[in-house]
Amino acid sequence: MKRIKNIFRRLFLILLLFFLVDGARGLLYGEAIDKASWPSEISIGFIPSLGPKETLKKYQPLIEHLEKSLGVKVEPVMANDYVMLGMGLTKNIIDFAYLSPKTYIDMKLITDCEVIAIELDKDGKRGTYSVLFTSKETGIKDLTQARGKVLAFTSPDSATGYLVPSNYFLKTLKQSPEQFASKVVFAGSHLAVVEGVAKGKYAVGATNDKDLSRSAEILGIKPEQFQILWKSDLIPGAPFVARKGLPESLKKAFYQALLSLSQNKSALNTLGIGGYGPAKDSDFDILRDLSKSSSRPP
Length: 298
Prior knowledge:
Elements: H1 2-29, E1 41-46, H2 52-70, E2 73-78, H3 82-90, E3 96-98, H4 101-111, E4 114-120, E5 127-135, E6 150-153, H5 159-171, H6 177-180, E7 183-186, H7 190-198, E8 204-208, H8 209-219, E9 226-236, E10 239-242, H9 248-260, H10 265-271, E11 275-278, H11 285-293
Parallel strand pairs: 1-2, 1-3, 6-7, 6-8
Antiparallel strand pairs: 3-10, 4-10, 4-11, 5-8, 5-9
């Protein structure tokens, strides 16, 4: 009888251990979460800064990872502009969105979206560096030599491609970009700025260190052909946000899925990042302060 009791006791402990481990695994990967309130398909909005085809190609490994982790279909939505992206979040057409840091602080006011996670660079830093750069073929060695030439930004909604460098002109050089350059243009994307500088269309371009490398790779250009004329302090990385009204369990599972991407080295290599980390709204206050002190183009 005592032997039988010991056997049952061992079986009980084994079963208890199994359920504890399986439950912990479920909490970690979202398997034990009640998905009854989840949509059968979730949509993620992107601004195709590298062009629709290249942007989709870049984020395909992430989409596949999210589908596997969440157990639902993930539909990427390529928004034509930030207005379309904002409308999608407001009208519940887009559930999650990958935004530029500057766009996030604007979208927060319009849509009250919630920041979920922040992009990390390959060294684990929580951001990127805005840069002003030129082609070495121009012979320009420093920014003073670029005075009176054509300057290209990405768009007024870009932190690293406009807000941060324009603030540098105003606060450090004590003049607006329009006063510094013979002509200021908005190329429309980081890729367009890099391509324009490479082809001699623009003497100086504004982007960030990560998009400079990514764009050079897409264009088949060696990054060494560019000269960095100015580099900012670290700027918060691009965030993933969630629209209002999504189930808390889905947002938590989405966050955990982003964190677990760190185990997928192939996906990280394609994305050109080091993974994702936790984020909060106050992380972007530095950009709010810059936005208040910088003038927008007429």
